[in-house]
Specification:
The protein has strands spanning 4-5, 9-15, 28-30, 34-48, 54-60, 63-64, 69-77, 88-92, 97-99, 109-114, 128-129, 137-138, 146-151, 160-169. It has 170 residues and is mostly beta strands.
Length: 170
């Protein structure tokens, strides 16, 4: 098992354009107005006390080993004075990180995925893989390269939406 340095991602500010597009590890956000996006990668650490009780806490992922589950949290905040509409946040899955089926959540969101490097997005049930020399097949979560959240309601001034998903490091 090789250790992998997980990233704690810095904040972004978006004013209606794609932000983070030049750095593949940063989420890309688009919206009708300004939004700030921050992201954290954590893992669940469990410790056993002498009395046998187990305590669990989320800690910064730091270094992770093959097979560990990662918990991604993206915070999308509207710093403006007006509601922001058409908010979309896209996160590329780093090399060796595999999405956990059904784990993309957030308030009033529509989750979409890409299995072709971010060229096309759609609901999981609609994704197909066409590998050279192979028949087309439905995409599986292990095939996903990107996760996208589309907020279905405007983000109010000062409000923050938490977008989350889980993944395994292979």
């Amino acid at each position: 098992m090789r250790p992998f340095p997980a990233l704690l991602l810095a904040g972004l500010v978006c004013a209606g354009t794609a932000v983070g597009a030049n750095d593949p590890d940063l989420p890309v956000a688009t919206a009708s107005g300004p939004v700030e996006v921050t992201a954290d990668v954590e893992r669940l650490r469990q410790t056993r006390a002498r009395d046998g009780t187990v305590a669990a806490e989320f800690v910064a992922a730091g270094r992770v080993r093959a097979g560990e589950e990662l918990h991604y949290t993206l915070r999308v905040r509207n710093p403006g004075v007006a509601p922001v509409r058409d908010v979309q946040v896209t996160k590329r899955l780093p090399f060796g990180v595999r999405y956990v089926d059904g784990s993309a959540v957030g308030p009033a969101i529509k989750a979409e995925f890409s299995a072709d490097g971010g060229n096309r997005f759609g609901p999981a049930r609609d994704l197909r893989i066409a590998a050279p020399g192979q028949p087309e097949r439905p995409a599986e979560p292990r095939d996903y390269t990107h996760v996208r959240w589309i907020l279905q309601r405007p983000l109010a001034p000062g409000a923050t939406a938490l977008l989350r998903f889980r993944a395994h490091f292979e």
